[in-house]
Amino acid sequence: MTRWKKVGAVCRKQMSDWLYTASFVCRLTDGIAGVQSEIDKAISLLSPEYKIQRMVAVDRNILRLAGWELMHAPDIPVTATINEAVEIAKKYSTEDSGRFVNGVLGALANQYPKSKAKATHAEDFLPEIELPELSELDEEA
Fold first, then answer.
1. Where does 3-140 sit in CATH, by number?
2. 70 with 54: CB under 8 angstroms?
3. How far is CA 63 from CA 20, 41, 60, 125, in A?
4. Residues with Cβ < 8 Å from 93, sequence gap 6 or more?
């Protein structure tokens, strides 16, 4: 295989990775848009001392993103969802946000076990792309 074919194959691989990420973002944002009031209601019930409109915007949106994953994405592990949300809150929000997000999402996970989650599938958002295996590229070099 020529170098140009290798470069093309690597570009297709990179594009495939980007498309997968883009499809997940579409799945997430479209999913939240469709059920935002349901997510907001669940968050509000679990944090009655904080009205959702008065929450720090970063916290509110982290809770919406992670809340959607907990309630509608059974293919994403609960611990991964909560850990990522807490880390994002610690990095981009207030000093207490990590604990707050962890508490609300922990309670939400107990309210919405993954077995009850309404599934959406990433495959619904992924375009079909034919890619060679990278091991095949090395063999032909």
1. 1.10.940.10
2. no
3. 23, 12, 5, 23
4. 56, 58, 59, 62
Task: Report domain extents, the chain.
Answer: 3-140
φ and ψ at residue 50, rounded to 5 degrees = -125, 110
Average pLDDT, 10 consecutive residues per value, the chain (141 residues): 84 85 90 94 92 94 96 91 96 95 94 64 49 54 48
Which pTM does this prediction carry? 0.73
The CA dihedral of 83, 89, 90, 91, to the nearest 10 degrees, is: 110
Q: Position of tokens 């207030």?
A: 94
Q: Give which of 57, 28, 58, 64 is closest to 43, Cα–Cα.
A: 64
Residues 6+ apart with CB under 8 A from 96: none
